[in-house]
């Protein structure tokens, strides 16, 4: 198996592809899917002002198309494969099985085994091969079946990919994307449920992004592939099948989102709520409940980028609201929320705060396997509501 992997990598997007760069030998992308209206909601669809989640559906809605996060990633991969023949995907089950979560569905048929490469269960091995390919001028996308398995390859990610540009005095670039599902799923227990945003966000030389909706997934993946240095793309398994509106301008093959720039998802005047990835769902639910029940106006910021962190957007929001709450699924110690709290003390945010910063995190325990305990170990809308009310000194109301 290892010999086959090496042959595929050497014969794949190699010098031949580099010599032929610019030639487009692959067919253009066809119609993404049949667009249709959903006649009614079901138990598989959650609807709100900012979030509509019909599983595996696409529909017209004003100037937007609806697509799942999975399909947004798949289309972005296909477009980047067509745009740049140096791009290839490597990982476990990414080819013949269409990906463990079907993110790479159809890519093997369209681009062949030299660019969509199945590997043995050897994260340290294929991550190292991918780093070497990046240093040789190719643009690998290295998929971890879950980022928990990236622990097997953390030396390649941190010591090889992240540090080579600095240690070479800026003369060697390493254009590689490490991507896959991050954080908790359902019933996968402690060894498969960690959020690696803070882990990799601590490393100089890495850019770390974490998409929430389909526009995030599409724009951040394309930006990551085009970046000249390592990018860690932290997806979420439970978001893959969720559908979101994607503006028409985001459907352009040239659409990218700037790494390091957050997005204000909902404007508000009473409190700033900062989050990323799946926890954004609960932030929106909490904001709607507070506005409906108590007239509290919540401004929600989707970080999108963990490193670099868009502190300017947070500062400008807190200048307006004078209150700050962060929410994440990571552990409380040394997390993304901890960094936001530190920045609140070290920047002008401190001058505008009317209350201490509130943090919402997972419980400080290995994730339980028991369903009832697992549910209690991660933040939900109710927990976020309580944190916002504490920030506004409305604890007893």
From TrEMBL:
Gene Ontology cellular-component terms listed: mitochondrion
| Subcellular localization | Mitochondrion
Q: Tell me its EC number(s), please.
A: 1.2.4.1
Q: What GO MF terms are annotated?
A: metal ion binding; pyruvate dehydrogenase (acetyl-transferring) activity
Its keywords, alphabetically, are: Metal-binding, Mitochondrion, Oxidoreductase, Potassium, Pyruvate, Thiamine pyrophosphate, Transit peptide
* Keyword Magnesium recorded: no
Designated name of the protein: Pyruvate dehydrogenase E1 component subunit beta
Q: Which organism is this protein's natural source?
A: Acaulospora morrowiae
């Amino acid at each position: 198996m290892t010999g086959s992997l090496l042959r595929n990598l050497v014969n794949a997007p190699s010098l031949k592809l580099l010599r032929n760069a610019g030639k487009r030998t692959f067919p253009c992308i066809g119609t993404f899917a049949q667009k249709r209206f959903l006649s009614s909601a079901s138990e598989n669809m959650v609807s709100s002002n900012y979030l509509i989640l019909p599983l595996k559906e696409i529909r017209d809605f004003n100037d937007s198309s609806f697509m799942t996060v999975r399909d947004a990633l798949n289309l972005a991969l296909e477009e980047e494969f067509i745009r740049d023949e140096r791009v290839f995907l490597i990982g476990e089950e990414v080819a013949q099985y269409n990906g463990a979560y079907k993110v790479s569905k159809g890519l093997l048929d369209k681009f062949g085994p030299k660019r969509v490469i199945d590997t043995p269960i050897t994260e340290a091995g294929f991550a190292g091969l991918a780093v070497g390919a990046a240093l040789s001028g190719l643009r690998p996308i290295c998929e971890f079946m879950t980022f928990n398995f990236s622990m097997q390859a953390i030396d390649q990610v941190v010591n090889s990919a992240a540090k080579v540009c600095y240690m070479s005095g800026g003369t060697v670039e390493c254009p590689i994307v490490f991507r896959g599902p991050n954080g908790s799923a359902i019933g996968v227990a402690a060894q498969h449920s960690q959020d690696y945003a803070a882990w990799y966000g601590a490393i100089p030389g890495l850019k770390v992004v974490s998409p929430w909706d389909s526009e995030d997934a599409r724009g951040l993946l394309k930006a990551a592939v085009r970046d000249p240095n390592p990018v860690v793309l932290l997806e979420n398994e439970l978001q893959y099948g969720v559908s979101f509106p994607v503006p028409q301008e985001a459907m352009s093959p040239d659409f990218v989102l700037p790494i390091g720039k957050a997005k204000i998802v909902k404007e508000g005047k009473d409190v700033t709520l900062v989050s990323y990835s799946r926890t954004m769902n609960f932030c929106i639910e909490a904001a709607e409940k507070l506005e409906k029940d108590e007239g509290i106006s919540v401004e929600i910021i989707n970080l999108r980028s963990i490193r670099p962190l868009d502190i300017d957007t947070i500062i400008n929001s807190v200048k307006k609201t004078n209150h700050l709450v962060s929410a994440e699924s990571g552990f409380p110690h040394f997390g993304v929320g901890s960094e936001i709290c530190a920045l609140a003390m070290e920047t002008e945010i401190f001058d505008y705060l009317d209350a201490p910063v509130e943090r919402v995190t997972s419980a400080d325990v290995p994730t339980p396997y028991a369903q009832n305990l697992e549910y209690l170990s991660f933040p939900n809308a109710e927990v976020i509501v309580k944190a916002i009310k504490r920030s506004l000194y409305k604890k007893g109301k």
